[in-house]
Amino acid sequence: MRALWQIFATIFKFSWRIINFIRQAVCNLIFFFVLLIGFALYIQMQDSTIQPEKGALLVNLSGTVVDSLSSDSKLRQIGQELIGSNKDVQENSLFDIVKQIRQAKDDDKISGMVLSLRNFIGADQPSLRYIGKALKEFRDSGKPIYAIGDSYSQGQYYLASFANKIYLSPQGSVLLTGISTNNLYYKSLLDKLKVTTNIFRVGTYKSAVEPFIRDNMSPEARQSDSRWVNTLWSNYMTDVAANRNISIAELYPEPAQLIQQLKASDGDTATFALKNKLVDEIASRSAVEKILKETFGWDQQNKNYNFVSIYNYQVTEPDFERAKLPEIAVIFANGAIVDGPEMPGMVGGDTTAKQLRAARLNDKIKAIILRVNSPGGSVTASEMIRSEVQALKDAGKPVVVSMGGMAASGGYWISTPADYIISSPSTLTGSIGIFGVINTFENSLDAIGVHTDGVSTSPLADATITKALPPQFSEMMQLTIENGYKTFINLVAKSRHKTPAEVDSIAQGRVWIGSDAKTNGLVDQLGDFDDAIKKTAELAKLKDYEIKWTVTEPTVREILLGQVSASVNALLPETIKIELPAPLRQVAEDINKQPGFFGNMNDPGYRYIYCLSCSYTQ
C-alpha cells in the first residue's frame, strides 16, 4: 500500500509540475502579448502625429466604411499585424472620414486631394453619398481632386466620379455591373439532413424565412426586391452621370450597345472607358506620379510626391471652452440586433439600452441622435432599445433617428418613438413583419438510431429540438407571432399618425427604399447626417452645442480574449478556406454575409424582426 501511495505521490508531483509550467507559460505569453499591443499602440500613435509639408491629402481607403467601428476592430487589426496576418477586413468610420475631408478643405497645408481607392472594398449607398458630399465641398473650394487607379469597381468609381480628373492605367477598366441581391436557400439541404423546420410568421413579403422553406425566391419577394434594387441603381447612375456631366446612356449603355462599343475598341476596356467619358486620361503609374509631382512637389526623403495619408491626418479636437457647451449625443445601432451585450458588428440590446439610459440621466446631454444602420434581429432586444428611446422622449429630450444604409424590421421598430426620422433616399427601411423559426432534429436522430422519450406534465413541457413540436406549442407560437405583428403595426400607427389598417397595407414585411418610405409616411424627411444634426439642434432649441460620440470601449478581459481569438481565427479558418475549391469558397463567403440572422438567433421567445433581403452587392 505504501508503495502504491509513493507511486501516486510521484505521479501527482510530476503532474503538478507540468500544470505549473503550463500556467506560467500561458501567463508569460499573455503578459508578453499585452506588452506587444501596448508597444504597437505607442508606435502607431507616434507615426500618426507626423504631418508633412504642404501637399495632397491622400485618400487611400482600405477595406469598408461603416457608421461605427466594431469595439474590437482597432485592437484586432493591431493583433493581426503582430502575428503577421491580415485576414479581417479593415473598418473605417464614415464620420471620421467626412470630418477629415472637411477639415482638409480649410487647411492651408492641404493643396489638393488624391483618391487612390484600389484597396477600398465599398460601403452602402447612403455612406458613399455622404462622403461624396464632403468631396464636392472640397472640390468646390477650389482645391483639385485627382482619382488614380489601375481599375475601378462600382463603389470606387462612385467616389472617383467627384474628382476633377480621373486617371486609368492602360490595362484598366471601370467595372459597372449594377446591383443585385443573392441569398442562399437551404430547403433541399435541410430535407436531406432530415431537419424539420417549424416556421411561424406574419407578412406576405417577410422573406427572411424563405431560405428554410424554399430553394428559390418567392414571387412576392422578387417583386418587392426588384423595386428597391432598381431604384438604388437609378440613384447611383443619376449621381455619377451628373458628376461626369454625361448622360445615363453614356455612363451605362444597354448591354447590346455596350458590347458593340467594346468591339469598336477591340476589347480594350481602358479605351472604352475613355471614349465613353468615364475617365479623363489613360496613364501609367509612372506617368501619373510625374503629374502629381509637378502638382504637389517632391518629397526627397520619401521619394514620392508631397502628401499626408488620411490615416495619418489628424482632426483638430474642440478647444476647452467648447467642452462646456450642451451636448447632442450620437448613439449607434449598427448591425443585427441581438440579446445581451454588444458583439463585434452587432447591436447588443443591453449595451444600447444602457447607452440610451445614460444619455437620459446625463443633464449635460440635451438631445440624442440615434444613428440606425440595422436589418433588425431579436424582438426582445429591439423592444428593450425602443423602450429606452421612448423613455428619452418622455423625459423631454428630443430624439432624432438618422437612418444609414438600412433601418429595416427591428431597425424600424427601435426608430418608432423618435420625434423625427430622417433617411437617405437610398436607405432600405420598413420590412414591418415578424417571424419565428424552430428547427427540430427528430428525423435526423432517428436516421442514426438515436431516439428521445420521457414524461412531461403537459404537451408544452415536451417541446424540445429532439422531438417533433407538440401541436399545442406550435399553435401558441403562431399566436405570439401574430400578437407581435399587431404590436409592431400599432407602434408604427401611433408614431406615424396612421390607423393600423393603413400601416398593414404598407407592411406585411415589404421593404421600402427611402424615397418610397417618405411617400408612404414612414419617415419625415429625406436627408443625411448633417440634416439630422440640424433638426436635433432645432428641436432642442440649441444654437451652440457639442457633438458627443458614444462608443463602446472593450474591457481588458475582452481585449485579451479578443486578441487570442483573433489570432486563432485569422490563421485557421482562412487556411482551411484556401483549401476549398473556388465554388465552395464562394458559398462559405456568402454564408458569412448572413451572420446576424443565422449565427445569432438568440431571442428567448424565438421571435425575430429581421430583413434578410436588405443586403446587396454593388
UniProtKB/TrEMBL annotation:
Gene, per the UniProt record: sppA
Record flagged with keyword Protease: yes
Coiled-coil intervals: none
Family: Belongs to the peptidase S49 family.
EC annotation from Swiss-Prot or TrEMBL: 3.4.21.-
InterPro entries: Pept_S49_pIV, Pept_S49_SppA, Peptidase_S49, S49_SppA_1, S49_SppA_67K_type_N
Alphabetized GO MF terms: hydrolase activity
Broad enzyme group: hydrolase
Protein name as annotated: Signal peptide peptidase SppA
Annotated ranges, domain Peptidase S49: 138-288, 392-543
Record keywords: Hydrolase, Membrane, Protease, Serine protease, Transmembrane, Transmembrane helix
Membrane is among the record's keywords: yes
Residues of the signal peptide: none
